[in-house]
Write a structure and sequence with these properties.
With 73 residues, this protein is mainly beta. The mean pLDDT is 89. Strand 2 and strand 3 form a beta hairpin. Helices cover 0% and strands 56% of the residues. The chain has a 4-stranded antiparallel sheet with strand order 4-1-6-7, with no helix packed on it. Strands 3-2-5 form a 3-stranded antiparallel sheet, with no helix packed on it. The radius of gyration is 13 Å and the shape is globular.
Length: 73
């Protein structure tokens, strides 16, 4: 059985209390995982069979294969 090799993103917190939320796939989108990052902390997240979206709250830099994005929050 081949595993889904989803894309990765890197989230670097630019402030205290940045929240990274994983959202599920399927008919009903639900929160399934939450992480809180402090200033300077980095998280590497992967899209998987269960994770269809990732929501980020707070000041952070998000790096993907498509480029780098800074939040305005």
């Amino acid at each position: 059985m081949e595993q889904n090799q989803g894309e990765y993103i890197v989230v670097k917190a630019k402030d205290q209390g940045v929240v990274v939320i994983g959202l599920t796939r399927g008919q009903d989108t639900k929160f399934h995982h939450t992480e809180k990052l402090d200033r300077g902390e980095v998280m590497i997240a992967q899209f998987t069979d269960n994770t269809s979206a990732i929501k980020i709250r707070g000041k952070a830099t998000i790096m993907t294969k498509y480029g780098t994005i800074d939040t305005d929050a």
